[in-house]
Structure formats: C-alpha cells, structure tokens
Design a protein that fits this description.
By secondary structure, this protein is of the alpha/beta class. Helices cover 30% and strands 19% of the residues. The chain has a four-stranded parallel β-sheet.
Length: 243
Amino acid sequence: MSRFFAAPSEPLARPARRIGVLGHALREREYARRVLRALGVAPLVFTSIDELATLGDRLNLLFLADVPEAASEEAPDVLSLMGTKIVPLAQEAPAPTRHLRGRPPAAAPAFDDFYRSILLSLRTRGLACAMPTPLVWGAYSFQPMDRSVSFPGRTQRVDPVTFDLALEFFFNAERVLSIPRLRQMLNPVRGARRFWGNELIGTLTDVVDELQLHGAHGWRLVHCEPEAFRLDRVPVGETPLQA
C-alpha cells in the first residue's frame, strides 16, 4: 500500500471475520484486495486451491476473482463445500479479435464495479466493514462509488479506463510501472480496442491532462524509461521547467 493512501475511517474488521480472495490473475486478485482494504477489511489472499483448502471451511466469505488455472479440475469439488460463501467477481472476457473495433460485447469489471459488488456483498451478509470513503493521496480524492476524481478546483466523473489507470499509479506512487505491467492491470475488454500497439502512451497523456498530473497539485506523471512511467510526489506548484 502506498504510504500516501488514506487510512480507513474505521478499524480493520475483527480477525473473527475471515474474508478471503482467491484468484490466479494479478489484476482481479489485486483489485479485490485493494477494495477490501479500503473498506476496512484485511483479507486473506489465496492464489491456489491448495492454499484455500486449509482455511476454506473457516472463512465467512470468499471473493472468487478467478479460478487458478493449475487447479481448475480440482476447484469445483473444493469450492462446492463453501456453497453460498462464494461471491464470483470476474466475468469471462471474450478474446480480443480484429472485430473488436467498436463497443465490446461484454465489459469485464472495472475498479468501481469491484467496489460496489464487494460492498454490497459485505452489507447483505452482515459482515462488518468501514463506511465508503474516498481514496485520498494528497490533493487528489478518488470516489469509487460514482467513479469521480476531485482535486483543487475540480470534481469530475471519468471513464473506467482513466479511473483505473490513474488509481494504478497512485496505489504504486513513486514506483516505476512498465507498459506491460500497466496493460496487465487494465480492463482486458475495455482495453482491447484502446491499448493495442503504442496507443497506451497516448492514453497516458490524456490521463495526465485530464487530471492535471503536471505537478501543480503535488503529483507529476513522468516518462522515466523508454517503456515505463512513474508518478512522483513533488512540491505543490512546481512546474516541469522547475524540476
């Protein structure tokens, strides 16, 4: 977790509330973990059925990001024992093809989708969690419930790709993120049309301009390597010429 990430407004859920996340894919597993942490829950994160087998019957709830590929044949028997404790999060995404030039036929969940789905699941099952609050880094405030971003002088709703991409940098503030890593963490369906080839760099430019990540509000997105970017914290008001 970034040291600039806002602390939950309530303490983490009590240890007796055992909530897990199972997933092979990094994106889905990490999104679910981030949402639960934002809601004041310290989840148990599993990447294989073998890990889950030792604790599955003691979990109050398991968010199934995806079934680990290596254990897909064993998964139905193990997971069936948990019954209604399982909440699926991800959808099957269609493989990218040359025909995906218009609107994709299905939309895999974005961060705000994960947030609303997990919050509803916790509430309907009576599992303790913190009240939804914005994710805050300095002057920037992200509200997952309506996919909006606030910073000095502006509050605006943004599209899912911009929201997810900006959050990826803030959650990894001051760390170098490669283009392959960014593609891995973005929505695979919404990204099928927009992120082929070198188009991601153009989209990053749009994110910088839309959220004013030029340093005036304390953060600047920099192109630090040929195939990598980093979100840096800078003195408020500093411009690129002063760096």
